[in-house]
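Deviation from plan, reported transparently: flavin-adenine dinucleotide complex.
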Amino acid sequence: MSEATTAGPAEGQPLSLWLATTGATDFPVLHGTVEVDVAVIGGGIAGLTAALALKRSGRSVAVLEAGRIGTGVTGHTTGKVTSLHRLAYTDLQRSHGTSAARVYGAANQAALEHIGRTVAAEDLSCGFRRVANYTFAAGPEALPEVRAEAGLAATLGLPSTFTTDVPLPFPVAGAVRFDGQAQIHAVQYLQGLAGKVDGGGSFVFERTRAVDLREGTPVTVAAATGTVLAGDAIVATNVPFGDHGRFESLCRPHRSYIVAAPVDTPPLDATFISADEPMHSLLTVRLDGTTYLLVGGGGHPADEQVDPAPRHAALARYARSHFGAGSVSYRWSTQDALPQDGLPYAGPLNPDSRHAFVITGLRKWGLTNGTAAALALADLLNGTPNAWAALFDSNRAPRRPTAQAAPRAGDSVSHTDSAARAADLAPGDGTVLDADGTSTACYRDEAGHVHAVSAVCTHLGCTVGFNRADRTWDCPCHGSRFDVDGKVIQGPATEDLPPRPVP
Ligand SMILES: Cc1cc2nc3c(=O)[nH]c(=O)nc-3n(C[C@H](O)[C@H](O)[C@H](O)COP(=O)(O)OP(=O)(O)OC[C@H]3O[C@@H](n4cnc5c(N)ncnc54)[C@H](O)[C@@H]3O)c2cc1C
Ligand code: FES
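Because the crystal trials were delayed, the predicted structure below was used instead.
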């Protein structure tokens, strides 16, 4: 059997608050052949921002989204729209120098303002709210680095101050405050963007997974049900495909957890992240008459197979002890690509690509990094100069070796259980069983039915492991995720796990 949960029954629905409070979109599946100027693969913040910017500059676009708009990483975000990325400037100055840190800050400030302008100009209803954003030192240990970050960010021209007056309901030692930042309901924002992209010779297709991309004149993007022919293509699938494994060594998927619990207080006029460990990321939002506190944290490399229940339980305890929050309403987790040198990638998909481009490596700050990367690519395709395109260039030379090599194809990080049987599985649990030498991923649903699929990831053959919090099969190697029936939720895999007989 799989290892026991150590935190008792999990509280709340295993669903993102953002997805739980938004109806689904219903754009059509791609059928036949469509010709446009630019094919955009992926309906997250990166893809849709690029698509709308290109459409507004006079290009026709087609967005291909494998699932529904906003159901990827962006639909599981915390929702902070800010250029204050914990202690990023200290880190970037150290690794890339002051000028690179300045450009990164300017790119993210520009992205924040772009989102604000887009919400106003396109009349999008998505809870965009200006708030201050803080990186706080809970205790004296983190205070010097918080003070240093505040000073550095101010010299880089960012709206930064150091303060000991931090509007949290518990004492902290001090914080960096960035004024004029924002928070957003990211799913509503994406649905709004998609509505503006579709029409007038441009398209949004849902339930349309791109399975092949061929460069040429035109670029051909193939899905099971149709084809898009385009002058250029942008791969904005979070973890790219069609890159021949190039970004596997440049980025590592990193998972984090979030709980949303009701609080009895008015929404905070600020968002927060701690500089200390364990890190806590905090935001409040009022939705459908309830004020929710979101607490994020518990992060780890996605190739570490951890039991999510204790991580969610720790965040729930923090919400109660620090904010008096009630029982958790929603809990979820998601993962994003951490670039090895700390900078996003926006540029050619492969080193010699002329018409295929990529956005990835958004370092868990993709609401602004993804927006900035998308704007850089839109400018590149339009021949417009862009102040941060060179810094984000995907063809830049690697600056530092990868801290820890990602697991390689064929690795089996999760354990196959040859002694157990599907009959032993509790409802809601899953495990990988050895059935006559074949690894089979078995999940028992609440009605008692066992769902059995191959446990061999269709990307490069690692063995998937069961994620109890989200009830998904997650690959430890490069971040692919599958639902309990084997359907791809997150790439780079593009093919589903095939069904297997129940062992
Ligand atoms: C826990 C957590 C909290 C975060 N909080 C914040 C925050 O507060 N602020 C912030 O700025 N950033 C935050 N981030 C980071 C941010 O959410 C991400 O960087 C960003 O949402 C990624 O956007 P994306 O467009 O790259 O990916 P996605 O939103 O995943 O979009 C990619 C889309 O591509 C689709 N797709 C994949 N493969 C294919 C294919 N072959 N064909 C067609 N479609 C495909 C997917 O279905 C998906 O919808 C957070 C990250 C995590 C992990
Ligand atoms: S083997 Fe690469 S994501 Fe699974």
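The longest helix spans residues 98-121. We consider this an acceptable substitute for the interim report.
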